[in-house]
Structures are given as C-alpha cells and as structure tokens.
Fold each of these.
Amino acid sequence: GAETSVGSRELRTLPTISRSAADFTRLEPTASSGTSGISFGGRNDQYNNFSLDGAIFNNPFGLDAATPGGQTNAQPISLDAIDQIQVTTAPYDVSQAGFTGASVNAVTKSGTNEFYGTAYGFFRNDDLTGGKIEGSDVFKTGLEQTQYGLSIGGPIVQNKLFFFFNYENDDQTELGTAGFVPNAGQGTLAESRVSAADFRTVDNLLRQVVIGQDEFGNDIFYDPGRFEGFNFAQESEKGIIKLDWNINDRNRLAVIYNWLSAAKQKPAHPSALGFRGPNSSTLQFENAGYQINNNIKSVQVELNSQLADDASNKLQIGYTHFDDFRDPLSTPAPTITILDAAGASNYIIAGHEPFSINNRLDQKVFQLTNNLNYYKGSHTYTVGFSFEKFQFDNSFNLGVYGAQGVFFPTTTITDFPNFASSGSLQQAFNAAINADRGFNAAGTGNPGGWALSELNVGQMAFYLQDEWDINLKFKLTYGIRFDKPLYFDTVDKVRENIERKGGAMGTYIPSIQYFDGDTGDATFLDSEVMPSNDFLISPRVGFNYDISGQNTEQFRGGSGIFTGRFPFVWLGNQTQGLDFFFYQVVDPDFKWPQVWRTNFGYDRQFQNGLKITADLSYTKDLNAAHVQNWGLGDPSLTLSGPDNRPVYSNDDKAMIFGGPTSAFVFTNSDKGRVWNASLKGQRTFNNGLYAMLAYSFLNSKEVNSIEAEITGDAFAGNAISGNANQDVLAFSRYGDNHRFIGVLSKEFNSGTTVSTFFEYASGARYNYIYGGDINNDGSSINDLIYIPTSGELSSMNFSGAGQAEAFEAFIQQDDYLSDNRGSYAERYGAKAPWKGRWDLKVLQDLKFNDKNKLQFSLDILNVGNLINSEWGIVEDPAFNQLLGVTVDASNVPTYTFDPDLMNTYNTATDERSRWRAQVGLRYIFN
C-alpha cells in the first residue's frame, strides 16, 4: 500500500522549529495541517493512529488533539529520540488497524556497541520573528522559546544489553491574542474591529464587581486580566529510557519508558458556544482563558522470539497513564459574551472559561498484541490477537455556575453598561461564586459535588493472514480481521452517576419520546444502553508485482476494509450528560468507524537515480460518524422571502421541560467518500544534491466534519440549509484540494548542509453562515446563507439603511458568492486563497576529530517573508458569520450586514504569515 518513510537524514537536515513529527509527516503528499492536527487523505486527524515502535500511542479520549500532549502543543517524544517515521494510508497487512485516516509510527533509537550522544540547545525570540507584513508593521508580544536536551546511547554489556536515554526541556511564551490588538485607529494589519475604547469600558465595569472580602473585611474586586500586550506561557519536559536485550540467539527483549510533563496557557475555546476568537472580529480578556496540563507516563515491552526455524512470535505489552487537568485563569465568574453594537456577532469575551470548571481527565490505557508467524514454502501465515482497554475518569462541569455561566444574556457593547449598573452583572458573579463554594465543599463524585463520569471501553481483535510469494515477481497478501468493541462495566458506571446526581438539574428520564433522526418516528433513548458491540469484519487483499524482476519497477495495490477508533469523549458525553439541558447519547446501533479503501500505485527507479511514484486511491465511508438532534422532527414551516428554507415550529420539537428538549445522538452514515491522486519524483545526484517534488489532488466529501468534543456542539456546528438531521454529503473541511511540496538538500565538503522545504496548497475551506437561528433548530451557528440575486436582494429586509447596497457590493467582489447567486452556499464550498511558503535549514559542522564535533544550526520558516514582506502570507475569511438575522412570528427574516465589511479576506497577522527563525548549537560524539 501507499507509504512514506522519513529517515534519519530527513529528520536531521530538514527545517523545523517545533521539532515535532508533524514537520516531517508533511512529506506525505496527502497530508494537510489544520488547527488541531495533521490530517491525511481528507480525513479527520482524530481518525489517525499514532504508534511508538508499533505500540498504540494516541490520545484516546480525543480532547483537542489526537496525539499525546497535543493539548499543550508539546511533543510527547523528543525528535532526538526518533530514528525514523513511517506514514501508511493503505496497508493491507491486517495486523495494522485502529485508523481510517493514516497510521503514523515513530521508531525510536537504540543503543549499539559504540557509545554515542549529543547535547543540544535551540533558541528563538521576537528578534527572530518577522515584524512586517505587506509593508506594514505588525504587533509583537515578546515571544521567546528555549529548548535544550541531551541523548546518550551505548552498551551495558557488549553484544548483549544496550541502552538509550534522552531528556528534553522546552519553555516558551507566545502571543496571547493570536497577533491581534484592539483597534486604536492606527490602521495597522494587526488591529481587530474591537476598539480599545470599548475594551476599556468593559474593563472598568468588570473591575467594579465584588468577588469577596479579605481578612480585614475589605472588598476584593474581580480581575479580568489584560486585554492587550499579554503573553501565554508554555512549558514541558520529557524523557525516554530504552533497553534492548539480546537474551539469546532466539529471543530479543526491548523495554521503553517515556514520560511527559507539560502545561500551556490558552485562550477560551474559539468556536464552542459560538465563535469567540481571538481573531479580527472578536477578542478576549487575558483571564478568559485557562491553563491545560498534560502529564503522561508510558511503558512498553516487546519480545521477539524465533520459536523454530519455521515459526516466530512477536509479543507487545503496553501501559500508559494520562493525567490531564485545567487551571482557569479567572476566579469563579460567569462566562461573559458581549455582542457588537448591532447584536449580530460576538465582540468581547471575558469571565470564566466555561469548559474549565474543575475539568480533570484521568486515562489509563492497557494494550496487548501477539503475532505468531509460520513459514511454509512460499507462504508466511500470521495468526494474531490484540486487546486494548481504555479507562477514563472525567470530571466535566459545564453549567454548574448557573445558566449565565454558559449562556450569558444577549448583551451588546452598547447595553453592557446598563446591564452592569442594574446589578445584573454582580448577580451573575454571585451565582458563580456561591456555586463554586458549594461544589468544592461536597467534593468530586459525591452528591451535590463536582461531576464524575467513568467510562471503561476497549477493543478485542483476532486476525488471520497469508503472505504468498506466488513467484519471484508477484506477491499476494490476503487476510481477515475481526474487531469487537468492549464496554465492560460502563453501564454500571452510568447507573452510579445517575444515583450520584440525584436529579440535581433535571431528573434522568429514559421515557421521553423523541423523533428518530432518519425516519421521524417516535423513539426513546436510554443512557444505560451502550452502542452495538457486534464484530466488525475487515477483509483485505493486497499485491505487489515486480514488473522488471530487478526491483526497479513495480505495480502495487489492494482493496479492503479498515476499522478505526473514534474519540471516546463522544461516548463519555453519554455517561456524563445525563441531566444537563439535554441528553447526549450514542445511537444503540452506532458502529465504530469503518471505510472501504482501494489503492493502486506504481513505482519506477531509473538508472540515473530518479524514482517516480504514483498513487490513486478511493475511500468509501461504511460507518461514518454523524450527529442528529432527535428532539427535532421534520420541519413543517417555510421561511418567507427569497430564502424559503424549511423552518421548525414548536410542534416539530419534543416539548418536555416547558420548552424544546434536545437529544443529541451520534449515529452513522455511509455517504462519505474521498478521491485522492498523487505523483512524486525524487533523485539523489552524484554531487550529493537531493531533490524531491510531489503533487496531490484531493476531493473529499462527508456528511459531518466533526471537530467538536461535545455532542451538542458537533450538531450545532454542522452547517445546513434544510432538514438539520439529514446526512447531506458536502465538502470536508479536512485536506487540501491541491497541494505541491518539494525538498532540496545538499551536503558540502566544508561541513555545511543546506536544505529547503516548500509547500504550495489551495486554501482552507470555510462556510458562509448566518449569525442567528434562522430555521429555529436551536443553533445560531449552523445556517448556510442564501445568496440572493440582485433582484431578490431588493426584496429582503435589512435592519439599517445602506446595508443592502453594502451587501450587494460585497457579493460582487467575492468570487464564490457572485458565482452562486440564487442558491444556498454549500457546506465548506468556499476556499481561501492559495497559501505557499519556503522553509530553510542550514547546518555547519566544526569537527575536533573523528569522534567529536560542534554543530551550529539555523532554521527559518517562511523564509520568503524575510526576503519580501508580501511573500508567504496567509489570508483568512474576514468574518465568522456573514449576515446577522432575526425572524419574526410570521417567519419573515430581517438581516444585518456590517457596511464596513468590504473584502472577503483579511491578511493573517499571526506567525503563519511571518518568517520565524531558530538558532541551535549541538555537541555530538560517537
């Protein structure tokens, strides 16, 4: 199948500042980096499987990032501990599983009979970061990062027992406002629409709120933090110890222990509960954010045994413990969301981060895999078994500070002073403070205390495979895999949670009648019912045909089913969300993600060293994840005007607690599909120059590009223009439609190595949506706009003079909107402008003798921006929600458009559009 292997030369010579595996997995043509991680072949990054020496090394609960330490932006394993990285998207070996995107395996270094080692340090700061974009100065906030570490490996007993050790520390501060500053009328690129004057007004009012008294009886006032000029800190330390023991001629044992301790300060979640920035439209106070902490300890044992001349066995056992928790930057407070003057979209965010209230997650992962190989003639038979168990203890307390701790009253920047002076602001703070005291007194997992959700889930698999060398040219691999989901005592844990909560915020009621999301028929949901645990069957067949018989030209391919995991937070929502506003459950018929993938590839090695690789693949969803709201039936009303989409009435909803009652349900769809084609050429010249150029085409469509961790948010953020529960096929937000990458690297006799990496790709996909719940489905961030013709525009109601004319001008300058007038915008149908950049690395070796040397390094990312401030820039949509909308009782909408919005895109002023450099010094001995 398709595979990209990144060796020690690439890891040593290619440019990187983060020193992360993602800087090297981008060499896979189908890769694409996004906000949360790196995706492959147009699949959600959460559907990848990351492994360390073949053993699972994921973030199984799936909060924020798919890799361990991803929440803190920390690398779980130092780059200096990795020998190679393998990325496979279509392996037809049935022992490889756990993904529907790609399998990414990092192979760690080992000790040898010779001692070797290195001590190193890297540094960057504001002076090594670009300060000019398109000729304009951009704001800097004292960025500084220092990384240092050491590695050593060698023999404990010659030819018998070896060790490898690495330790690394990373400290940095980064821009707390994503590069944006309040608007002070200076006209710089970094200015957002949020005015400094408005910030000062809000700041003054918040600092008048009393949150308690000191020991002398003096009032203590709330501190919202700064609104500009602040940095967020990030720090981590990590290490790995590896032992390799040649027990005898037939048995080899490897033991790996690694750890990570990391923390990172972050702004409030940018999209949950609406679009909240920080960006050009919305800014946050410093203390609206939080600090996330990731602590990981992991041990793996691998035993390879030659049982007989015709049989071998590989046994892997692993255990990983994750301890993740949040420290809010704010004292107990409501979550304060202030709208712009028109009331159309979020403007200023302050107060407590709503998802960080006593938010703790303890994860324990156990894994066991055994592969027995039997060799007979031209056949290699494999019989394998794997077992994985994931134990999660999660305390998540959204909403315990009262309704205003989540959904702040609709207050504009104009009305906020009146809201404060009326005493409502102080009352909201009092509610949050009193709630925090009560929950703290009761403790975690006790009645009236902090929530505790326990989830035990796993997977058991066994598989059979035959690798058959039919002749010297043709190899056929075929096998079948059976995966069985396991839920252990999770039902008992759900019952314990129901008893603990005691109906504190609405009694758990499994007898509520809902609507089946597909048929609309009456149905019932029960949080004590787990999803289906039927066997998931994955047959696969693959082949390699050596056309020339000289290993210089081959045709390869295969077809089969791949079964993956999903972020277990989705199931955790069911065990946790028993009585908070709405139920969040997994459909009893839900099946773990499965895709059918077919791939054909061609490789040709020419005599001059040129190697050409071509791949074509097709992926079809069999069990894709899709979220519905079973509190909604079919919409029965119609919107009035050119936009005549279906609208929900209260008769179309489950009305239980005196109002609409939602039930957000994870279910499956089989409509998604991906076409992917790539072409790659590479050559090493006689003078030592290495060159690589690749192109990838991607067309990826799915029914729900899920990024959210909360089931309700996954529904609310899935943009639609019709029935909100239908699984409508549309473009995926993951992956680049077109992507070019290239590498040039040259080692000179003087000890100098110069390497470059370049990428040129089509821009990220985005939506045109309304700000407001135009169809009354309960979400104000999921309604795709209708793009009116010029004639239809004149019949639409706008809230202010000149808005219709301004919207017409905006449509005319926007290519997507002007090309699609008279129709609804398609989910992720629009693409931002192409993005491109060059990265550069220079290494200089200074040898003392054959065994000792110093190495100086310089890494520059986006070096084009250093040469010319108009190069290497990234453009983002200048809006989150293009049109504000309200709907009256007759279903007649009134629209709001900002006349100051005249261009579709703003130039990003964060690090993506700036050059960044890092200097390094390394001592090497061997």
Amino acid sequence: MENEISEKEFAVPFFKENGFTRKQCECCKAYFWTQRPDEKYCGDSPCVQYSFIGKPPAKRPYSVHDMRELFLSFFEKNGHTRIKPYPVVARWRDDVFLVGASIYDFQPYVTEGQIPPPANPLVISQPSIRFTDIDNVGPTLGRHDLIFEMGGAHAFNYPGKEIYWMDQTIRYHHQLATEEFGLKSESLSYKEHFWSGGGNAGPDVECLCDGLEISTLVFMQYKVQGEELVKLPIRTVDTGYGIERWAWLSQGKPSAFQVIYGSVLDKIFDMASVKFDEKLVAKVVPVSSYMNTERGESRIDARKKMADALGMDWRELDKVLVPVENAMAVADHTKTIAFLLSECVVPSNVEEGYLARLLIRRTYRMLRQLGIEERILDILDLQVNYWGGDFPQLKDMRREIAEAIKSEESKYRRTIERGSDLVRKISSDLKAKGQKEIPSNTLVELYDSHGIVPDIVREIAEPMGVQVNEPGNFFGMVAQKHLSGKRASDEEGETEVAVSLKDKVAELPETVPLYYKDPFQKQFQGKALAVIDRKFVVLDQTCFYPEGGGQPGDIGVLQTSAGPVKVVDTQKAGRVILHQIDGKPPRVGDIVQGSIEWDRRVSLMRHHTGTHLVLGAARRVLGKHAWQAGAQKGVESSRIDISHYERITDEQVREIERLATETALQDIPVESMWLPREKAEQAYGYILYQGGVVPGRELRVIKIGDWDVEACGGTHCTRTGQIGAIKILHTERIQDGVERIIFAAGTQALRAFQEQERVLKGISSAVEAPVEKVDQYVQTLIEDRAKLTKRLEELGIQWAGQEAERLLRSSKKVGTVKLCQGKYTSGEENEIVSLNNKIVEEDPNAVTVLLLVKDSARVFVGAGKQAISHGVHAGKLAGKLAAIVGGGGGGKDYFGQGGGTNTKAADQIIKNSESVLKSMLTK
C-alpha cells in the first residue's frame, strides 16, 4: 500500500516555507523531512537512541493531566470543539471490542458519511487499549503500554466543505510542539508512512523528537476492502498525539512509567521490595528495543543481546530488571483492568470479557513472581484514586471493580486445581513419545481453553522432565485470537428467509410500519404490491411486526377477495415487510384487510417491555455491570441474558422480581422516539446498545422513565401498567460470566403463579400438612430421611462385618489363597462392594467372588495384597466369570466387576470360580 503514496503527497507548503528537506534514512530507508541538512537518520528508535533521558527538551515538565489540558486547550484556541472521551469498550461497533485509537469513536458512521460528527473540527483525548503489544509492556520500560491516551484532533472534509488537510495539520502540530511545548524546531522530523486501521487507510507522517515518536498524523481517505483501497467521499484528518509520550519527553525520566504512574508505581515497588535503580534503567532504556517481541527472539536471547550491548552479565541484569519490569507491567495492567471493569465488562470466555480475564490472570502471574499476589485489590484502589479525578466512573464503580476481582481470583484458583491433572497427563504422554518439551501451540491451547498460564504448566511439567519454553509473545498470541469478531447482538440482522428474498424485493417501495405509530392497532387495510413464490405477500403498509430484535414475527389473517388466508410468519428484507401465508395469495393490486392474532401480539409486547424492566431491576440488584448479553421474547415466557460474575442467588431473584413488578405497577409511560444516531448517543450514552449494535442513521429509542433506555425496534406497551405482574420462573448459567433469567409477564405470570400454587397444594395434600406449613413439614421429612439413611449405613456396615466373618470361616483353600464366595438376591451394589472391601481388608490372602442376582447377574471380584502377589488379578477374573452369564467385565488387580443377562447361569459362576482361579494361579 505504501507504494500508492508519492513524494508529492508530502511536499506541503509548510515544509518548503520552513526549510525542511526530504531525506532517506540510512538505517531504515524510510523518507523523512528535517530542517537539518546533514541529518542521516529519520530520528526514530532504533535508528537513533533516545537523547532526551536526563535532558528533557521541553520548556517545563508536564504531568499526564497537564499535557492533556495543554493539548486540548491549544486546539480549542484554534477553532476545535472539545468533546468528552468515549468509553474504551466499543459497544457501538460490531467489528471490534475495544477502542484502539480516537478515530475508532467515529468509525464507520462518521468516516463513511452516514451521520455527521459531533463537531467539526473537534478535539478529544481518548483512552485507548491495544492488546497487540501486551508482551512488550514492562520489558521495553515504557515504550509500550496497553492503555494510553490518544490526543485526537479531527477534521472531516466533505465534498464542497473543506475544513483543513495535511498542510494545516502539520502546522498545528509544529506550533504546539515549538511555541506551546517548547521544543526547538530543528529537533523535530516528520517521517513518511502509510497507515491503516479500523477498516480505513491513508498516508501519514510520524512526528519524531530525540528518538521518540510523539505523534502520528494520518490523512484518512480510503476504505480497505480486501486488498483494495477504495476512495472515501469524506477525507478525515486523524491525528494521534501520544499524551503520555509528550509528558515523558517533557520530564526526561528513564522510564515513561515513572511519568505516567508516579506515586502508584512507587508504592508497587515498596509493596514488592523492588529496588529501582534509576541510573541503571537510564543506561538500559536506549537498548530496550532488544526486548521487543516483534523481533521474534526468546526473552533470554533478547536479554543476552541487551547485556552484551551494555557490557554486563545477562543473568545479573535479568535478576535486577525482571522485578522492575513486572512492577511496571502491573501498574499498566491494573489501570487497564480498572477501566475495563468500570465499563461493566465481566471477565468471561467471550468478547471483551475474555480480554479482561486474560489481563487479570497475567497480572496475577506477575504479582505472584513479585511475591505480592494478595495485593491486587490494594493496587486497584490506588489506581482508582490516582485516575478517578479525571475519569470519575472509576470511583463510581470502585465497589464493583473489587467484587469482580474477588470472584475472578476464586475462579482462577479453581482453574489451576482442575488443570493440574491435565498438565500431568500431557507431560506423561509427551515423555512416552520421547518428546522433552511442551510445544508452543499446546501452551496457547492450555491457556485459551483451560486458563492455565505457562508458569503453572512449568511448575508441574519440569519436575516430570518436560521443559516449558514460553514464546516471548505468548500473551499477544492468545489475545490476537480474540481482538476482533462479530459482537453478539439481539439485532442480528436479517433472517435466512429475508436474505434469500432480498434481491426479489429490491425494487419495491418501503413498507409503512403501522405498528410503530400505534402498537395497539389490531386491524388495517393494505394494498398488495407483490406476491413472491406464491407464499410471501408484500403490502404497502402493515400492522404485522416482522421478526427482529429477539421478537418473533406476528401471525394472523389477511382477508382477500378470495377469502381469508393465514399469515404464519412475518419477515423483513431490507425495507420491505413480507407476510408468509398458508393459502391462496391475493392478486397484485388487491386491497386486503389484515388482522393480527391479538392475544399473541399483546403477550409479546408485555414480555418485550417486561424485558426492559427485568434488566433495569437486575442492574439495581446485581450492579451496573449487569449488561444485557442477549434476549429472546416469547408468548409464554421470555429470557434475558445478563453479564454477571456469580450465580444469581434466590434472594436476588426475589428482589429483581419485586422491583420489576413494582415498576410495572407504577404505570410509567413507555416513550418511543426516532433520533439521529449522534443525538441519541449524546443524550443517553452507549447504554443504548444493551441489545447490541443497531445499524442505521436513526435509532428508535425506548425510554421508560429513569428505569431503562435502549435502542430497540420491537413492539412495546405504551405504559408499564399494561404489563401486569412479572414472575421469574428460573435462572441458569449459560456460560461463564453470563446468567439467563427466564420470566413470564401479564396473564402468563398469573398462570405461572397458579401452576406453582397447584403443585404446592398437591404436595400439601400428599404430606397431609397445611399449605402454610408445607416447608416445615418437608424439612422434617428431609431430616428424618437423613437419619434413616445414616441408620441404614450403620446396619450395612454391621451386616458387612458379620457376613465377611461368615464367608472367611467358610472359605475354600485354593492353592496359596482363600476363596470366599457368596450369592445374594437382594441388596444394593454398594453394599456388595463394601462387603468385598471388608473381606480383603481382614485377610490380604483372600479372593472374593460375590454375586448379586436380580434382573441381571452382577459379579464382584476382589483380591487382597497377598493374593495379588500370588498372581491373582481381580479384573481379569471378573471378565472370565462374567462371560459365563453372557456378559463381560474387567477392572484393576485389586477389584473387578462385570455381569450379564443370563441369570439362570449364575450358579455356574460359583461352581466354576475355583477352577478359573486355579488356572490363574498356575500361570
């Protein structure tokens, strides 16, 4: 793609006016612009080393907060409108999970011209998260981070309405860098490049000073379609000022993490008793690029090269730097975790929840290495206090952040316990095959599918003689599999039927949806515009709601000139609504009368509106993190899936049910409104997308007082009082981190109450207790049953002891062992097994052959330790004896079992067991 850009693209007036010349870097061969005529290098690392460490070139030191304000204020003074940062979770997009740059806020709707920007031009400082560099965070001592602020100055240039382009963008950058920030003009160089991201692309210049890239100025003008670049109608100025990097440059500290995290990092060092040698780090930082995992080397090999460059022993260097790197990574990761959890991300195995879990477990790994695994909550609290002034949602969600971490810690410990046996098995299998190392893809699979990090694998595998060599980019490899994908949504788009018919209705006009104007309209009149495949009728207008948003399509009747015809389903293809019929279709041009099956529709409306109430109640009971993860509305009941890190308790279920029903009874108006997407987002935020990403320039917003607001296309009641009661039928956990609530509303809720009452009265009658005392009576029955069970166990033990003594007295001497035989026609298998165990415990030289004959013949064989030493194998003996009754069996040397259906031959087992046992002993 870079070949698409010519030299003329970058030859802007600013460079010519200010004495910049175009040169080719002797190191990386890229072209760059500089005011230094003798300059040979582009100014980027590793072509040149950092020269600002200890010699900051700015006129004064800036904190991250100060730098953010300097950047925003500068562009405000230059005609840009300041806007608030967007969330880091990109819930308005279905192609990515997290915001990786400020331009993500405006893709695809603004950049492709579907909606106007919130201002033009605008400026924003956007927290962004990029997992691609996760393994570099820490080892490169500040060059890489997961979470960072991208200062974005954006201008959207429409045909006939130009705001500004490359020349003015570079002028703004140079003015901020020199006049406001205090850099010398000649210290800056501008490196030519080509950028792509988020589905768009364009030429860019990377702005460099003293070896550090501080900004990237992108001139976005293409849409990436496969391998092709397609011109966009809107040309977008997409600048990325690295707020933290500018602050780092201004302070000249050895590590950017010192500048970003300040007292938080100092406290982490103190907690872990890590000595931070600033002089050593200052020497190491210029060669820290050796640790970049993109180089493809192992961590040890990279450290050796770093040590060679410094003239140091790599082991000594590693010993000093690893704790420092881990502490720095912990600072970065815990901030990222705090931001993710504050935006209602629940750690799980899907979407952004997977990335949160990955990060939490990597953080635990480093805390474990630092010896402060138990301090994660303390560190998160430090982060909330440190960043909460600029990002107040962190303080608002402090409690929920802590609760999510506690839950995740417990799950992680259980995961390690469950996974240990799996690692042992894999290690044993590899050793059996003569392999001495666990492959990288197996390590990735162990984490991706089972949550076991390489450190735990190493602790288990290496004592077994199997090596674990973790790839330097291990976590990046895992994260890469989960960074993008289609976000789950109730608004999944068109059904298969609709897609198959889309071309056939492409020329038809949009169907007027009468159900939005009046959801209580039961009948209507419409004109037949088309009949497709003799079973899909298209009308000019309709009250029939088409399937969508988790709500089934309406059914009913169309009254035609030839008589009534059933509507068995309703679908939507593009803007056209299709009525699927069972019968003779109307003629095109006919006027038909439509009637909805009203009881079904009103039940769906109650359940759809009830879904909003249950969700609002869940968020109030469980916490703000309880985000909708899916829903399906039904006639008899509906379900809503919500993100939550624990199972919902019975007490919480009752409270959700109570709040939802009380809200219904308050008879709150249910407002529905069509709003331009940008207006809806400005008014209500991204909670609009609880049900998933909704396409289009306009959003239909459903607002129920202060209880719930969501972009939703379904049919709803006009007041909550029309719902009636809400009854939660049950809950279930459909996957880790997602709870499903199944509920009934209105008449169906009444039926659920009545059914529960019927069952309760049935139990009351059966146990002969009043309804109001059934629970007490049943509890008494449970206690009595437990007592009886215990007594039966005692009697069973007593019987086994007596029977074992009898069988041992009557045992036969067979060679060097004793044969104890018994046949039983009553009792349970566990009692016979207990009897077997008792006999071989009493006499290690005993062999048991015990039969239980009921509908089939079961044989149980045991062998004491001494009998085993004489050649007896209980499992093999059981197999041979079970064959007598037409079956099979097997087991271990000390115990075997089997059986067959030929009960008449059971006595033959007793007769033949002595000879079969003898044959085993002679062998």
